[in-house]
Amino acid sequence: MTIALGYVFLLSWALWIGAIVFFLFVVAPTAFRTLEVEHAGKFIRTVFPRYYLVGLVCGLFGLMSGGLLIAMRFWPWKSGSTVLMLVFGMMVVVLWARQRLVPRMNLLRDEAHEARETDDEDARAEVLSRWQRLHRLSVRLNLLVLLLGLATGWAWLNCWLVLPGRY
Predict the structure, then answer these.
(1) Which of 16, 28, 32, 119 is deepest in the core (most CB within 10 A)?
(2) Whole-angstrom Cα distance, residue 11 to residue 36?
(3) What are the backbone angles phi and psi of residue 155, rounded to the nearest 5°?
């Protein structure tokens, strides 16, 4: 049972980190290189909520399996709780980005389109400036989640390197 829970944690962690790397370094750049900017933006706008949902589901499986491994005394409390805190931190960032940041960015993008239709270039420039600030924040938050995920992997290794009964 403990080995299976360990694999569940490892799989959820690997899927999450893989999704982040794939999205940041393959999907987003490819979309903007191969599609027109407006179509790429619509594509990314559609993908983002699902991308974040994948992270939240992986995080939930990670928290459950990791919590059970600590409860079963298979993971040491100190390194196991570090793993869980890192996963929880990743989930908080992703949840905030999904529920707060992405809707704000979408609203600003819509406002920019409306300003373009009314030929109000000053308003459009101001809205796009605010959107670009939120976009930079989004990129930084995604990189933060990736770094937290890598730190989670390091802490996870410490759980397996300290054998049960030796802590």
Answers:
(1) 16
(2) 35
(3) -65, -35
For residue 20, the number of C-alpha atoms closer than 13 Å in the C-beta half-sphere is: 25
Per residue in 60-102, pLDDT (tens digit) is 999 999 999 999 888 888 888 999 999 999 999 999 999 999 9
Taking the CB of residue 130, how many other CB atoms lie within 10 A of it?
A: 14
Q: Which helix (H) or strand (E) holds 67?
A: helix 37-71
CA dist 146 and 18 (Å) reads 10
Q: How far is 5 from 62, CA to CA, in rounded Å?
A: 9
pLDDT digits (tens, 9 = 90+) for 89-148: 999 999 999 999 999 999 998 888 787 777 777 888 888 899 999 999 999 999 999 999
Distance, in Å, from the CA atom of 163 to the CA atom of 95, rounded to the nearest integer, reads: 34
Q: Residue length, the chain?
A: 167
pLDDT at 167: 44
